[in-house]
Amino acid sequence: xxxxxxxxxxxxxxxxxxxxxxxxxxxxxxxxxxxxxxxxxxxxxxxxxxxxxxxxxxxxxxxxxxxxxxxxxxxxxxxxxxxxxxxxxxxxxxxxxxxxxxxxxxxxxxxxxxxxxxxxxxxxxxxxxxxxxxxxxxxxxxxxxxxxxxxxxxxxxxxxxxxxxxxxxxxxxxxxxxxxxxxxxxxxxxxxxxxxxxxxxxxxxxxxxxxxxxxxxxxxxxxxxxxxxxxxxxxxxxxxxxxxxxxxxxxxxxxxxxxxxxxxxxxxxxxxxxxxxxxxxxxxxxxxxxxxxxxxxxxxxxxxxxxxxxxxxxxxxxxxxxxxxxxxxxxxxxxxxxxxxxxxxxxxxxxxxxxxxxxxxxxxxxxxxxxxxxxxxxxxxxxxxxxxxxxxxxxxxxxxxxxxxxxxxxxxxxxxxxxxxxxxxxxxxxxxxxxxxxxxxxxxxxxxxxxxxxxxxxxxxxxxxxxxxxxxxxxxxxxxxxxxxxxxxxxxxxxxxxxxxxxxxxxxxxxxxxxxxxxxxxxxxxxxxxxxxxxxxxxxxxxxxxxxxxxxxxxxxxxxxxxxxxxxxxxxxxxxxxxxxxxxxxxxxxxxxxxxxxxxxxxxxxxxxxxxxxxxxxxxxxxxxxxxxxxxxxxxxxxxxxxxxxxxxxxxxxx
Length: 655
Description:
Blueprint: H1 2-26, E1 36-42, E2 46-48, E3 51-53, E4 57-64, H2 68-98, H3 105-121, H4 126-186, H5 193-209, H6 215-218, E5 224-226, E6 231-233, E7 241-244, E8 250-254, E9 257-259, H7 265-299, E10 310-312, E11 336-344, E12 350-357, H8 364-372, E13 377-382, E14 387-392, E15 396-399, E16 409-412, E17 420-423, E18 431-439, E19 441-442, E20 450-455, E21 461-466, E22 477-480, E23 483-486, E24 491-492, E25 497-502, H9 511-515, E26 521-524, E27 527-531, H10 533-537, H11 554-557, H12 571-615, H13 619-654
Antiparallel strand pairs: 1-4, 2-3, 5-6, 7-8, 8-9, 10-14, 11-12, 11-15, 13-14, 16-25, 17-23, 18-20, 18-25, 19-24, 20-21, 22-23, 26-27
Helix pairs in contact: 1-13, 2-4, 2-5, 2-7, 2-12, 3-4, 3-12, 4-5, 4-7, 7-12
């Protein structure tokens, strides 16, 4: 009987080996399947008549052919690759939005500056003015489309995050259920190979979404840790959720707090979200500086149509009584002053009034109160719309150009000759000039008549003029920096003083731009920017000059020379450099991510090849094994037949 048992054990062992091999062939193309091999071992020998005899063969185990070190590395590279790909997809889209070329933001900005420069040189040509307005509108539309594109990208990214979280929750739920099944199946001492392969396939799917701790592949007894420690999977799993902020950005949360994965598609999407925000902020900063520059030049200039009767802000505050620094304005306001010119239409007399602005303490209503106190001017706020309106009284007109008053402040003045100021100040700093009559007498007759002009703040002498017998009464005499003064017939008294402000920048606070008072654009970058409708309909409303006379383009000429608030950089140069840097940076980021993705991809391919060489099924190799097991089965069958024949002969003899 011993020989028969030995033969039967061989038959059974070969049959099971054939079953394992057949299963390998059947699952050669099954995703996640791990090749199995039947491990045969000698059965425990038996002792008969003092001798040990072999008792046959048995299947000691059916093993999965797997290299966990390779699998762990592959899981990590898969996760890193998914993260890099998610970032690359987003940054490539951003690059296409900012791509240089015809009609791009950078090109339109350059064309806009060039058109402004040409218009400053030939301000009387209406075709150039119309072209400039068209370019400004084209720029605003392209800018709006770019911001809309970034917003759409942010929306798609948020949708992708939600889909990734749903996928993670579904996968972790399946894993927790599978873990429970594996634990139950393992209590009998057998190894559920098929279930383990399913588990590894699910872990591979999870690794595409978030990082998975390698220990999860080494043991089924440990909980699966993923998502930077924010995801735990045992027989129960962590459920993730998505929270959306007011700016459209999203974050992933669980019952334990925020989840910050280190790699995987979800990590890539969340990182790309920060990149979108960074590019948007840089673009907004660049666009705001460019728009602010054109708005400042427009708001502080004066065109051929002359001063205006009213101005209404194009940009609104959220609260007319809140400090301007916290009133929801898109453009910054700093401590400074506004220089408001008020012109009497009948007499031509012009007064200039300084309005101090402190954004930390002054509200829009406070600013309106100061403006309303200026003679000939009324100012009011609309608390519903958050807008400021400035209206001149009948017979008066207003502007914020850098103009001189026609008559200085007669601080201590007893003379009969009232001076008159002319010209356009060409200096670079706002100053107050003080004039003192050094020698009195009759103008145009007495040689002793001398007036000295000094900087009121420093005391530095600016100019000394002689109004004696060599001076032609009522003739303008140059003081300095484009400023002239005329004295009519009369006398001056020694010791008399008068003063006046010379203004290089009539808005050192930035309030006109921030509020949209007399600006080129309405709205703001990212918030529906457009050329003011009245300018769009009539390009004559462009404030090309500073004097209000036809043919003056000095206002727009400032575009090439205006400096940053700290005085360190020419704004146009910085604006040109900034957009170039932004476009270049997107290209560098795309290239960096492409190189990273390709490098990770090569590692993935290598690791996948190594995994396939161990765990993959080669049908040809399996067929050779099958033939080997078939021959073993046939030999065992013949052995059984031979033993059976021997028993038959024995039974015949015994009969």
